[in-house]
Amino acid sequence: MFKLNKHKSDRYRNKFDFKFSNFQAIQVPKGWDRLFVSLVSVETGKTIAKSGKASVRNGTCRWTETFSESTFISEENGDSNEVEGGHFKFVVAMGSSRSGILGEVTVNLGDHISSKTASTLTLQLNKCSYNTSLQFRIQCLTPKAKHRDMQ
């Protein structure tokens, strides 16, 4: 058997390495004492990385862990405006049950492949009725310009 890859020649698949750090949840409501952050692939639904639990103090929770992840991102016809792949969720939770999840944010890593420097994102948690935000730094360790030079 063989697999037919549609328009494979029209896509450029490159591997990009990312680093996520300085995680901080802002405006955490009372009753959420110890939280962790999980990095989940949207494509597979699998947890890729998980922080340890950190205590909430004055409505803020900080994690010291740094996550690293490599992913393949496709560019249609070399057009940087059309990228495919690289969608990840960051889930902020207190436990593993649904009731223990404070909220989540989804990030398209394709939006960050051209940046050589780290940038800070502050995103409001989805599925959260408390106005809580997750702030973190994201850095592409292998920016797109480097890959273009090799092709």
UniProtKB/TrEMBL annotation:
Pfam families named among the record's database cross-references: NT-C2 (PF10358)
Domain C2 NT-type: 6-142
Protein name, per record: C2 NT-type domain-containing protein
Organism lineage: Eukaryota, Viridiplantae, Streptophyta, Embryophyta, Tracheophyta
